[in-house]
Amino acid sequence: MMALSCRHLLGLDGMPKKDIQTILDTATSFREILERPIKKVPTLQGKTIVNLFFESSTRTRTSFELAERRLSADVVNFSADASSVKKGESLKDTARNIEMMKIDMVVIRHAAAGAAHFLSRVINANVINAGDGAHEHPTQALLDMYSLRERLGKIEGLHVCIVGDISHSRVARSNIFGLRTMGADVSVCGPRTLIPSDIETLGVRVFHDIDAAIADADVLNVLRIQLERQESALFPSLREYRSYFGITRERLEKSKRQITVLHPGPINRDVELSADVADGEQSIILQQVLNGVAVRMAILYLLGTSA
Predict the structure, then answer these.
(1) For the domain that residue 185 is a member of, what is the CATH number?
(2) DSSP at 283
């Protein structure tokens, strides 16, 4: 049986290539299950999984819950808005109280970078990071890579340009780590105010001209502008951002390459991505949503059935 080298999925920084390959290969099997009339398998029957979300989420939380139920696990959804956290309870106490209920796995999203790592040190259950601050979002990067492999047949050798708000993006960081491990050439593009000054130390190229980035890329992974995470205005206006960095059909048509477009969602339509591109044949955004369930099923299976 295929297995991962670790008990938790905390991030892709330092994750062995073999582990990433195992997750992507296993997801192929679960992707086939999602096409069946009966989409449920008894793989994790008897296992209890807690979704511990301290930040609001629709797509990731729904995707995880669907993946868990497709594997026949018992699912408990925990929301910080309706919990003792609002009364001042710490993450450590919350986690230990939940673990006393004999749970097997925790999926955590938290505003603090490192929350998933901390949790893995204080409880015995398997921990899956569903996003921690601006640090990492490993399952999103894994489903992005799976979607690219499904569409283009490979990851190695592709030039993937991540466009937009790199500074505040956990998706960007996990994609950089994962894609480079799998042999892709990775670059970033955006305003200087939205790209960390030391980003090149992660082994990526930097563009500040979107047309130059498009001309050189096989794939554009377009990120949402995260106004809620910005403490001050980092560019003059959304209209100006669209003018200089928005991915439009006109811009893509200037390139002679057949460029594949991804977006982790939710999309600010006609800001970072025009509606006709989001809905066009180059976009695999909806496939990412379906593949997200398969990839998360694979991760839950690999961690939930390991010794």
Answers:
(1) 3.40.50.1370
(2) B
